[in-house]
Specification:
Strand order of the largest sheet: 1-2-3-4
Oligomer: single chain
Mean pLDDT: 79
Low-confidence stretches: none
Structural class: mainly beta
Radius of gyration: 11 Å
Distance between the termini: 18 Å
Order of helices and strands: EEEEH
Largest sheet: 4 strands, antiparallel
Helix content: 10-25%
Length: 56
């Protein structure tokens, strides 16, 4: 898990040779999250850039 500039990036190995990633935007004073995006099929570069069409 990585935190940078009010965003959190987390990854999970699914056991089938692929990683899944999620990014969340933190709200005021790190008390919760406003929005998240989920990335599948080893899409680390997209998750790192924060651009995806799959909001939570």
């Amino acid at each position: 898990m990585l935190e940078y500039n009010h965003h959190v990036l987390a990854g999970h190995y699914d056991g089938d040779g692929e990683f899944r990633f999620v990014t969340w935007e933190m709200i005021n004073e790190r008390t919760g999250f406003a929005m998240g995006h989920y990335f599948y099929r080893n899409e680390y570069e997209k998750a790192k850039a924060g651009n995806d069409e799959t909001p939570c």
